[in-house]
Amino acid sequence: MVLYDSKFQLEEISLKLVDQKSRGFISTFVGELYAILIGIGITSVIYDLKIELNSWLEIIMAIFVTIVITLYWWDWAAFVSSYFVASPAEFIIDFANLIVLEFLFVYYDDVQKLSATFFALGIIDFVWVTNYLLKSGEAISLRNGWILQKIMGIVIYGISLFIVITYTNTLSSVFLVSIVIATYILVRIFCFKGVKQEASINFKAANIQDIEAILEINHYYVNQKFNDKFLLQKFNDDNLLELINSNAKKVFVSTDKSEILAYVIVSYSIPPDLLDGIQWLDPSLAPKIKNSDCLYIDQIAVNPNFLGRKIGREFYKKLIDEQSAFSTICAFVALEPRCNLTSLRFHESLGFRKAALFNRDRFEGIDNYKSLLLVRR
């Protein structure tokens, strides 16, 4: 087997992998700016002496916008920062979102402008979600639901803005402020569900009753021709049943109530033929993997209807806990002729590192196949 120059391969891989430094920079940048934004906003409100202690309505509005921005910060830290797709567009949208949030402090005492700022915020939220879904390739069911939520948010903010502008001279300030606050609460309740979609995961060995659901998930990803989420090996009832009953390999599933959220196929060593002629990028890992048992992830896939809910990440944690006897975990991820960027990004975020390059003229019916062995210790 002919392997091309190691330096060239490393450069090629670095171009294909999502730059984790960029991802880390954006995540840190946005997180720290939220803290700065709140600090500057509160300081400007206090030291510009715009609030008089007897102006209780202005005090309420200042507290309200501070809570709004804090909730956005919480969403970012608790949900978004762990799975956003790093890109120039992401950076621009995040920065624009922060700028618009800052205007909440600027206009906290002007109901019309404050309402208009919320409307702009709804548009920015819609743009962020659209960009994320286009970059990440989430399932259609999640995509449509999340986009519809954000469109509904824009509509609600738009109606509120119309009422505030139309009735500024006829309704009391207290009533108009109540409309703005109520509008945000409605949007928060009904239009932010997508970012928080998580499932309660139960971990168990697969059985015969799970075969149909596993096959449905497997066939979905095998048939993906243009997405970077794909699987090479297609199963049928017979070979999946054989795997479930096998002593050499194990099939585990994660469930929520009666629904299969994801499955994983593991074995307790890497097949010797896969290690034959492999090119080690980190030679120190070779003896550990060759001469001792490791938990080898043969295939893992998340139900496409539940993408974006951190199921794969939680599933891995459950798997690692259940198989704690294995200090080394290995997985191959395709590089060519199709690069599985989603899987590469996912494994690197879990602490896997590049161990070796696998290269075959033909593998699983694919010509000029190349993959990367990732290892977590």
Protein described:
- The protein has helices at 6-16, 20-47, 56-78, 88-106, 111-136, 140-166, 173-191, 211-222, 237-244, 272-275, 286-291, 311-322, 341-349, and strands spanning 202-205, 249-256, 259-267, 279-280, 295-302, 329-336, 353-363, 366-376.
- The chain has 377 residues and is of the alpha+beta class.
- An eight-stranded mixed β-sheet has the order 1-2-3-5-6-8-7-4, sandwiched between helices.
- Helix 12 (311-322) links the parallel strand 5 and strand 6.
- 32% of the residues are buried.
- Residues 1-20 and 138-142 have low confidence and may be disordered.
Which characteristics define this entry?
single chain; 377 residues; alpha+beta; eight-stranded mixed beta sheet; 13 helices; 8 strands
Report how far the terminal alpha carbons are from each other: 29 Å
Total number of strands:
8
Radius of gyration: 25 Å
> Unreliable segments (pLDDT under 50, ≥5 consecutive)?
1-20, 138-142
Strand order, biggest sheet? 1-2-3-5-6-8-7-4
How many H/I helices?
13
Backbone shape: elongated
Amount of beta strand: 15-25%
Mean pLDDT: 81
What is the helix/strand order? HHHHHHHEHHEEHEHEHEHEE
Described by strand count, sense and barrel closure, the largest sheet is: 8 strands, mixed
Helix content: 40-55%
Please identify the structural class as seen in this structure. alpha+beta
